[in-house]
Amino acid sequence: MLPKAVWIPDHELPYPPRTLVYDVSSGRQGMLMGGLIEEGPGGREIHRLYLRPEHGGREWSTDPDSVKAAES
Predict the structure, then answer these.
(1) What is the per-residue pLDDT across 11-52, written as a single tens digit (0 to 9) for each?
(2) Structure pTM?
(3) Taking CA 69 as the corner, what is the angle to CA 4 and CA 17, rounded to the nearest 5 degrees?
(4) Which is nearest to 43 in space by CA: 71, 10, 1?
(5) This protein's superkingdom (predicted)?
(6) How many domains does the chain have?
(7) How many CA atoms lie within 13 A of 7 on its CB side?
(8) Which of 9, 45, 62, 70 has its CA 20 to 30 A from that of 19?
(9) Beta pairing class for 20-23 and 67-69
(10) 49: how many CB neighbours lie within 10 A of its CB?
(11) Range(s) of the domain holding residue 37
């Protein structure tokens, strides 16, 4: 069983931290800041990535499957 939440190590993220990515689920682009693995209902693992708007602002979370490389 996991603690309540653990950080995903940088080398296990889909892209390096501070990479500009596109969040398909929200239609927004942002910098990948990091990720967490949290314990969900029934003890299942929930993976979340945290993104920040490129020019600052409030972070949001998304599913790792919703993130792809941003087009320049």
Answers:
(1) 999 999 999 999 999 999 999 999 999 988 888 999 999 999
(2) 0.89
(3) 45
(4) 1
(5) Bacteria
(6) 1
(7) 6
(8) 45
(9) antiparallel
(10) 24
(11) 5-69
Per-residue pLDDT tens over the stretch 41-64: 888 999 999 999 999 999 999 999
- Token pair recorded at residue 4: 């309540």
Q: Which two tokens stand for residue 6?
A: 């653990």
Give the separation between CA 27 and CA 72, rounded to whole angstroms.
15
Q: Which tokens belong to 38?
A: 């949290």
